[in-house]
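Hello Y.,

Per our agreement to keep a running log of every chain we model this quarter, I'm adding this entry. I've kept the format consistent with earlier entries: sequence first, then predicted structure.
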Amino acid sequence: MKVMCIALATWMVTACGTVGSPIPPEDVGVTPTIERQKRFDAEAAKREAEESQPVPEPLGQDVDLPSLRPVGTR
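Predicted structure for the entry above:
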């Protein structure tokens, strides 16, 4: 048990002082986030413009049709 506690303490002392890989300053802050969002919005608008095609209007829909009631019957 004593050996296990010593091993755990040694591991914690060495693990708590480790430093991760550095983060480049170009990837941190508000400006890169805003630029990524603008790029994403521009790509989404481009994709939406490509996908939306004008719908052709059906022919003959603006003609007034006669009423559906039969003429001359009761």
